[in-house]
Amino acid sequence: MALTGRQKAALLLMSLDEMAAAELLKGLGTEGIQSITMEIAQLSVSRESNSKHQEEVAQEFYESLQGEGSQIFNTDRFLNEMLAKKVVSKEEAENMQAKIKKSNAKKELFKELFAEIHSASTEELVFALDGAHPQTIVVALSELPPKKTQEVLSLLNEDTRLKTICRMTRPDTLGSNVKKRMILSVSEKLKSLEGETLSETPEQHKENLRKTAIMLSSMEKDMRDQLLEEISNNNEKTGSTVRALMVTWEDITAIEDRSLQETLRIVDSKTLAVAIYKADKEIVEKIRKNISERAMTSLDEEASLMQEPLEKEIIDAREEVVAPLRNANEEGTLRMTGR
């Protein structure tokens, strides 16, 4: 998510020592100082002020960033520096500190509320979220690690999963009381569960990953890539599987002719002949429809000369046909008419 101007200003100030930060704030009015100070407090508590963001913001303001890392920012020390330099009055500094403490107390409360959700197993969360409103599911998953979020999403029913992922892309603003009620409803349901578990076969697991892959492929490229990166960072094997399942041999009938033609041009006739051996009639017709007459003749010649291929040879040949389609999908150039 893009940083706001206020967040960028806060992150930049957090890269500096307190005296320098207070000096920079001298030219701002009381309202501006209070606004940025509150932003600093929120970033500190939510741990969004990581070195990567600070470096990115610093690079935006300066041509280069010298030195490594950033100094640890202390909000109380910062307010004292501003007070010493008479940037704000004692009363204004006390008001700021009171608001910051209130904000921090609220965040600590939510941490306690989320404790039940944090400690729950994937299976328990799936049971607890069954039938819940998509927005409630988004709130419940918002504090979980990406890997666990992905695991829970993959086990929800298809309709709920789609609606939840759509909600994740919407910047809805919820009041703290509404959010609190949502968390409590999930926590209460978790407490009522007594070790219930889900049993998932490898086939069901792959099917769930396939559904997740299809939904991700329907999202905007930037959002899709961000979610795929999070999945891969937490489980590289799962990330690779989801990427592969975004485009499969069975999807060939759903690919636009132009996209398919560009791929088939670079696949040799022998590989294509093996790939279509005993393939679904619709897929064979789709492929034949999108190759030139010359390629069609060469394909028929290869088919008439080859011996019956092994199952592994057929699978490998189909993967070779699908590979460039996956590459096009990664680049955002693959066009599909439907699944």
Explain how this protein is built.
With 339 residues, the protein is mainly α. The protein folds into three domains: 5-106, no CATH class; 120-246, no CATH class; 249-331, Flagellar motor switch protein FliG, alpha-alpha superhelical domain (Annexin V, domain 1). The chain has 19 helices and no strands. α12 (202-217) crosses α14.
Question: Briefly, what is this?
Answer:
This protein has 339 residues and is an all-alpha fold.
Counting structural domains, the number is: 3
Order of SSEs: HHHHHHHHHHHHHHHHHHH
Cα end-to-end separation = 30 Å
Query: Which stretches of 5+ consecutive residues score pLDDT under 50?
Result: 63-70
Biggest beta-sheet profile: none
Mean pLDDT: 77
SS element count, helices: 19
Strand content: under 5%
What attributes does this structure have?
mainly alpha, Annexin V, domain 1, 19 helices, 339 residues, 0% strand
Helix and strand arrangement:
Layout: H1 5-14, H2 18-24, H3 30-46, H4 51-61, H5 75-84, H6 90-119, H7 122-129, H8 134-141, H9 146-155, H10 158-168, H11 176-192, H12 202-217, H13 221-234, H14 236-245, H15 257-264, H16 269-275, H17 281-289, H18 293-305, H19 311-331
Helix pairs in contact: 1-3, 1-4, 2-5, 3-6, 5-6, 6-11, 7-9, 7-11, 8-10, 12-14, 13-14, 15-19, 16-18, 16-19
